[in-house]
């Protein structure tokens, strides 16, 4: 399967919007050093993830990456932080099922991970 022209345009549009966002970004602390550091993080994260995923051909995976990118942009703009928001789940805090151990908990944790954190562990 090949990436369609519409999908390609959507991906390139997201890439451009991330760079526009980085250019206009201001740290909430107001410190110039923080602003520069956060702008650099946004640019490095975008470059790394887009290069990592440039050879994807599966339309479902491409759609997941587009959804993750969109979610991370929206969360960054809403919370005014460039970093992914962490999730806080206690190690054995998901639904306890009788006879289920650590392996099932790890599977549940993986399934419960928000869309905007899918690639964060792979890159960080």
TrEMBL record:
<dbReference type="GO" id="GO:0005739">
    <property type="term" value="C:mitochondrion"/>
</dbReference>
<feature type="domain" description="Complex 1 LYR protein">
    <location>
        <begin position="9"/>
        <end position="70"/>
    </location>
</feature>
<protein>
    <submittedName>
        <fullName>LYR motif-containing protein 1 isoform X3</fullName>
    </submittedName>
</protein>
<comment type="similarity">
    <text>Belongs to the complex I LYR family.</text>
</comment>
<dbReference type="InterPro" id="IPR008011">
    <property type="entry name" value="Complex1_LYR_dom"/>
</dbReference>
<dbReference type="InterPro" id="IPR045294">
    <property type="entry name" value="Complex1_LYR_LYRM1"/>
</dbReference>
<dbReference type="InterPro" id="IPR040330">
    <property type="entry name" value="LYRM1"/>
</dbReference>
<dbReference type="Pfam" id="PF05347">
    <property type="entry name" value="Complex1_LYR"/>
</dbReference>
């Amino acid at each position: 399967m090949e990436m369609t022209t519409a999908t390609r345009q959507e991906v390139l549009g997201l890439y451009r919007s991330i760079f526009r966002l980085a250019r206009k970004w201001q740290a909430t602390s107001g410190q110039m050093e923080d602003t520069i550091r956060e702008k650099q993080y946004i640019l490095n994260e975008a470059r790394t993830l887009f290069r990592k995923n440039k050879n994807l051909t599966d339309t479902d995976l491409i759609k997941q990456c587009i959804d993750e990118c969109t979610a991370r942009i929206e969360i960054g703009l809403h919370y005014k932080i460039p970093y992914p928001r962490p999730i806080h789940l206690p190690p054995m805090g998901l639904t306890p099922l009788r006879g289920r151990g650590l392996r099932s908990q790890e599977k549940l944790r993986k399934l419960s991970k928000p869309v905007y954190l899918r690639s964060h562990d792979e890159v960080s």
